[in-house]
Amino acid sequence: MGRTKGARNADYLKSRDKLVTLLARTAKHSASFRALAVNARVSPATLRNYFGDREGVLDAVLAYQREKGNPYRRAVADAHAGDVRTALTWVLEEVAAGWRLGLGKVHALGLCAGLDDAHLGPSYVNEILEPTLQSVEARIQRHIDSRELRDSNVRYAALALLSPLLLGLIHQHGLFGSKCRPLDLKAFIVDHVEHFVRAYER
Fold it and tell me: Which of 18, 49, 135, 182 has the most CB atoms less than 10 A away?
């Protein structure tokens, strides 16, 4: 019996997953649809069959990166990492280490592709930025529940904790600020956590 019109091949999802894995390593925010196809080693027609258009490609890459990062975000939210200062220092050090190992490229892709883009901006927020913030919210809530931190708006607190580090990482690594105005990120994290805890402790 022939394949039903409009039905996908049995290996469609497997082939799509392989393409997404490859695109996650090669996609650039400035790449055209044709360039994305070249990097994925397929024709534009094949890429269009799986993703539709350039936005579809980048959506798929961001969704893939979210899934890849889920175990790390769960650890940020749930790992027993000691008292509040030790735990929050560990969280920020994990973010900094992940940034150097590839997380920075994910944020660069999302930020550069998403700024002023009504479709890709929310895609980056929903797939990468908010899941990260929400894991930090959950971590802070643990320390509120253990009465190490005072009750507060955890969303505001998570932004207060994470934003300075993200700016520092963009400054030092994304913008190569380490070459013109180096920052000791490890010392910065310790200092920042101390001030954060003093502001939010009971």
Answer: 135
pLDDT tens-place string over residues 15-58: 999 999 999 998 888 899 999 999 899 999 999 999 999 999 99
Q: What gap in Å lies between CA 25 and CA 68, rounded to an integer?
A: 12
CA distances from 200 to 92, 143, 161 (A): 17, 10, 11
What are residue 199's phi and psi, to 5 degrees? -75, -30
- Asked whether the beta carbons of 61 and 23 are under 8 A apart, the reply is yes
Q: How far apart are CA 192 and CA 202, in angstroms?
A: 18
Contact 81, 91 (CB under 8 A): yes
Tell me which residue has tokens 């196809």. 37
* Phi and psi at residue 201, to the nearest 5°: -70, 160
| CA–CA distance, 144 with 175 (Å, rounded to integer) | 35
Output DSSP code: residue 190. H
